[in-house]
Each structure stands twice: as structure tokens, then as C-alpha cells.
Amino acid sequence: MYSLNRGYTVPLSASSTAPTSENILAVPGTGGGQDGYDYGPDKRGHKGRARKCLASGEVKDISEMIRFVLSPDSTVTPDIMGKLPGRGVWVSADRDALAKAINTGGFARGFKSKIKVGEDLIEFVESLLARRLLGLITMARKSGHIAIGYDQVKAAAGSGKVAWRIEAREGASDGRGKIRTLSKAVALELGHAVPKVMGCFSGAELAKALGRDTVVHIALPPSKLAKAFGVDAARYSGFKALIPTEWDDFKHETKAVKQVSVSKKEEHERP
Predict the structure, then answer these.
(1) Model's pTM, two decimal places?
(2) Do residues 159 and 204 lie in contact, with contact meaning Cβ atoms separated by under 8 Å?
(3) CATH superfamily of 2-125
(4) Mean pLDDT of 60-79
């Protein structure tokens, strides 16, 4: 059930780039730990459960947080899917919040015991979230709920069936701009939400997730998978900018759709 990865014990489904459909579409926080519970509104419209952030004390929906448990040797372990057994504590999915929890002894207080925290815990959490997003892209390819390449993505944009535009970080702004303009115009005409955009992965990373040599443009249509992608993209944005600040059309992309696309750290560093 578990795999040792860089000193942390994590579930295989969290570290794999090709998870099963059962695991990949599961919503974080629905596992069997001592603090496990159902996420989101049920069929009767009841509100989802929330947890208090270990760093800020703010109560948030678990879709905006990361769960942590203790491994058998008392190492603080990220539980991206919220499924590991044992008592868990929660931290907002944000680089600054996690750093505060680490630096102020928040985990020791939360677990009420002596604990060990790896020096690269923040980077490890970021890498697990990235792997999950790439895993969702892999699942989209296997299920056929995806458009790949300029022609397919442009056609999807023209039909108004795009929930997410995923662009290679190093891709040219010309092709990206044409797709952005078309997808926005069609969405507004049809009364749909303007597609969100992600450009934090390299073409090589996207190509590996899709089993191709090169990939620049990807689109995900509205679906349960796209919704799961959005939940984890929002969590990932607390650690890494979804839209690269170095893009020459950065302002156009951020204006095209209202989304949290720049992490606090990068927002502070951007001139």
C-alpha cells in the first residue's frame, strides 16, 4: 500500500503519474483516517466538512488544504489524497502557511508529540501535487476526454467545450494567444465560464504524461475529471504560479480568466 519516497511514506496513488480511475477522481479527504469524513455537499445539499489550518487557525474547506499524518517513525508525512490511516492535521495549501507551520512548531502542537520534519517537506508537497495533476492528464488521455495539439485544441475552443487550457511553459505566445482569444469569445457568446489556463509544466513533462514526443497545447472538456483537476490546480497554485510570470502575454492570460494563478512567493517577487 505504501511506497518509500525521499524519506516520506506516501500512498502509491499520490506519487504515481498514472493512477487508477478509482483513485484519481477521488476527492481529497474521503479516506479512512481518524479524522476522515465526507467532502462536499451531499445529495441533500448539506455543506461539506471543514478543518482548521494548523498555521493560521482559519477554518477552510478541505479542498483548499493539505492533510498530514505521522509515519511510524514520527515523520510528518503529506497525505495528498487524505486517505492515510491515523490522526491527521491540516494546513492551507499554501507555501507560506506550510513554512509557518514548520517554523513555529505547529506540527508538534498539532500532533501533541515529538515529531520529525524533513528539510524539503515544502518542495516534496509541491512535487506530489504536480504528479497528481500530471496523473490527471494521463487519465484524460486514457479516457479520451482531452484535446491534444493546436488543431484539436482550437476546434474544442471553437465548440465552447473547454474547461481547462493547458499550455507548455516554453510554448510560443502566438498560438497560445489565438486559442485564448477564440476560447474566450466563444465562451462569452454561449454564456459559459471562460476556460482556465495552466502553463507551469514544460512540454517535456506534458509529453511524458501523454506518452508523446512533444506537446504544446492541451484542452480538457468539462467533466468530472476536469473538476478534480481544478481542485488540485487550486491547491498547487499555493506553491507554484499556474501562469508563468515570464510569459510576454502574462497580463492577457490573467485578464482572460479570473483565477488564483500566482503563488504568494512569486507574487512578492514579481516586479
Answers:
(1) 0.82
(2) no
(3) YlxR-like (3.30.1230.10)
(4) 96
